């Protein structure tokens, strides 16, 4: 396996788990985040504290974790008309998708990430996309990410690998993966420091973390945490 990776790191549960996954496997791991005018921009404020805590998790991780890159993609929010980039009620559209779907988001994320990786000599891109517990976003599907890998490799005439370690995991399994990688300390970090709420609520705290508790992201996270706790070995 290639030893140099770039993790798409938002400050949320999934990307934090993926960061730990990458730090366990690659000798050099850098991170990249995107400001796309998201309604829950508070997630961007969570990124640096998480990175600081991850560095203290183990000496190995501290040595492997490299620079963080922040990309201004607010133009995406300007051309979007979604509940993630505007103050509107979350609902399903006549396409069957929730209006939290931001068209082209992951395509742009991976394109810019690949450009940074190319410059930095990093050939593996790691993303927290999932096709098991998700809202049906077509740009999170496995086939989409495989197609992006082919397009990026061809377009840059360089080997680009796209890794999605959460693709076939539900949220309970994502919590379990965090525990497997980093023990209860990493689970606590995910609970206390990450942000996934679509509404940007950082005032209400629950056993699974901060959030409004009612948006689709909070419901997925909460249900997964309860299933994770219920399935825990009593021993």
Proportion of residues in β-strands: 5-15%
How many DSSP-defined strands? 7
Strand order of the largest sheet: 3-2-1-4-5
CATH architecture descriptor: 3-Layer(aba) Sandwich
Write the H/E string, N to C. EHEHHEHHEHEHEEH
Q: Helix count, per DSSP?
A: 8
Q: What's the CATH H-level superfamily name?
A: HUPs
Radius of gyration: 17 Å
- The CATH topology assignment is Rossmann fold
On the 0 to 100 scale, the average pLDDT is: 94
CATH class wording: Alpha Beta
Uncertain segments of ≥5 residues (pLDDT<50)? Answer: none
Q: Could you say how many structural domains there are in total?
A: 1
What is the element layout, followed by pairings?
Blueprint: E1 4-8, H1 13-23, E2 28-35, H2 42-57, H3 59-64, E3 65-72, H4 74-79, H5 105-120, E4 124-126, H6 142-156, E5 161-163, H7 171-193, E6 205-206, E7 209-210, H8 216-230
Parallel strand pairs: 1-2, 1-4, 2-3, 4-5
Antiparallel strand pairs: 6-7
Written description of the protein model:
There is one protein chain. The protein has 235 residues and is α/β, with parallel strands linked by helices. The protein has one domain: HUPs (Rossmann fold), CATH 3.40.50. 46% of the residues lie in helices and 13% in strands. A hairpin with a 2-residue loop joins strand 6 and strand 7. Helix 2 packs across helix 7 and helix 7 packs across helix 8. The longest helix has 23 residues. The model has no long low-confidence stretch (mean pLDDT 94).
